[in-house]
Amino acid sequence: MADTDAHLAIQFQNGDRKAFTMLVARYEKPIFNTAFRMVKNFDDAADITQNAFIKAYEKIDSFNPSYKFFNWLYKIAVNETLNLINRRKRRREFEYDPPAHLPSPEDDLELNEMGHYLQKALDCMSYDQRIVIVLKHLLLLPYSEIANILGIPEKTVKSRLFSSRHVLRSELIKQGYVR
Amino acid sequence: MIKQEYIDLMNQELDGTNSADQSQELELFLGSHPEARTYYRELAQAVGVFEKVDLLDPPPGLRDSILAHLDQQVESDPAASLDKDRQGLLAACRGWFRLPLRPAYAFTFLAGLTFGLMLFTGSNWLTDRHGTDLYDSVRGTANHSSWDLEAVSEGELRLPGIEGLYRTMREGPDLRLRLKLRSNKPAVIKFQYGPHTTLQHYSSSNQVPSNLTVSNSLVELNHQGQGSYDLVFHEDMDTQAPIMMLVFSEGRLVKTQTLE
Questions:
Q1: What is the ipTM score, two decimals?
Q2: Strands B218-235 and B243-249
Q3: Nearest to A173 among B7, B15, B42 (CB)
């Protein structure tokens, strides 16, 4: 029990700040990576990660320890990601700013060759397809948990996942990785 | 063209969610359809990319930045700043209900039952004794002698949508609170307290009927308009544990105040 998420969450609800620090250490990396694959920008992914933890901190009293903590946290992170993507869209609709999602040289350096293949393929997917495939294959979550995080039926998760894999396959064929 | 049902079976096979029959059906199908076999191989290869991609390390200092931000927030945001005071109290409450001993539950149940009976049978008595003439202002014009003890603390509430005054005083194991509020929108005042504390008395001189609910270690007062309230919290252990007053306006926490 000592180090389970639920135990740490309860400890934090009871005022133990160290428990929250441990949760940050545990989930900082997966959340950052999910965000990065969604927004393709190192700084934005860091902002999403930070905002997700701040929201979790503020709302910790609403967390029910009988549910999985990471599902709850990922749900917050996914909402933060969607908010950022929507903000970008609105900005592009009303302003003539260059698209904010262009990867910086720093972002390029962070990705190895395989990472580039993958990112290019992800770019060809809709948001709905991308988030499902990232949660499934990057975070290795089962259908049921993805459904819970995204608030959609499992059947929809499957159909989005299968269509996103089809896009992934087609794009990787185009890039010459899949033959 | 491959039928969708076989594409679904291929995907499920990759996820390991096919039944034995489904796997066998797929195998038979792939054995007799070379184009489907190619599609399945390509799909598996594509999905395999994820296994070859390493997770990126977050920027150095991100964790420190998150924790520093939270520290800053606790200092500047009243909603967050309730933590330190409140958490101890909540921990005590939660600890109480996690006790494996049944007497903890029995005691709380009996305390609740007693209070409920008091409210039910004694509501008239409470109103008569501390009714609408209780005081006109907590600023000192009250003429009810039993309440004219020296206040331990008092303060003003000047918040969006709600303003008022409060005064508390300690009298042995009792914490007495007078609260005068004026709001143009519905407001909720919550009082959180420890397991050894109970609400012993409540009366209101509000023009608009207010709604009071009492649950374990929490009193919730729904207020609108102008009015004043008297509450007495009694503590069995006489440890003078603080009570947290949380003021919500339009569903948003706008003020936390420790009452001592």
A1: 0.83
A2: unpaired
A3: B42
- A58 and B79: CB-CB below 8 Å? yes
The neighbour count for residue B195, using CB atoms within 10 Å, is 22
| Partners of residue B79 in chain A, C-beta under 8 Å | 58
Long-range contacts of A67-73 (CB under 8 A, 24+ apart): A68/A5, A68/A6, A68/A145, A69/A5, A69/A6, A69/A8, A69/A9, A69/A23, A70/A5, A70/A27, A71/A145, A71/A148, A71/A149, A73/A23, A73/A27, A73/A31
Q: Count CB neighbours of B258 within 10 A.
A: 15
The model's pLDDT over B168-209, given as tens digits with 9 standing for 90+, comes to 887 778 888 888 888 878 888 999 888 888 888 888 876 666
Q: In this complex, do A33 and B56 lie within 8 Å of one another by their Cβ atoms?
A: yes
Distance CA(B112)–CA(B198), nearest Å, equals: 9
Q: What is the mean pLDDT of chain A?
A: 85
Size of interface A-B (CB pairs under 8 A): 109
Q: Which residue of B has its CA nearest to A110?
A: B56
Cα(B163)–Cα(B138) distance, rounded to whole angstroms? 13
- Distance, CA of A70 to chain centre: 12
The partner residues of B201 in beta bridges, in order of sequence, read B232
